[in-house]
Design a protein that fits this description.
single chain; 75 residues; mainly alpha; 1 helix
Length: 75
């Protein structure tokens, strides 16, 4: 009869390997979420700048249109 040898290696235990896999995935997810947060901040900043530019262009157009209407009415 063959007896199973008692292994003293840490990597022969399934709990250790599973922990290392989960830990590796957690480290990878940390960097993925950090990168995603950085990109979302860039998108948010760009959207705010675009909205501010559109608002100022709209205000300039309204101010220009109002001045032209007054000029035409005074003629």
């Amino acid at each position: 009869m063959v007896l199973a040898s008692a292994s003293t290696s840490v990597f022969d235990q399934p709990g250790t390997i599973a922990f290392l896999v989960i830990f590796g995935m957690a480290v990878a997810l940390y960097f993925v979420f950090r990168s995603m947060a950085r990109h979302l901040r860039k998108v948010n900043t760009a959207a705010r700048e675009e909205a501010a530019a559109a608002f100022s262009a709209e205000q300039a157009e309204k101010a220009g249109t109002g001045a032209r209407a007054e000029d035409q009415n005074s003629r």
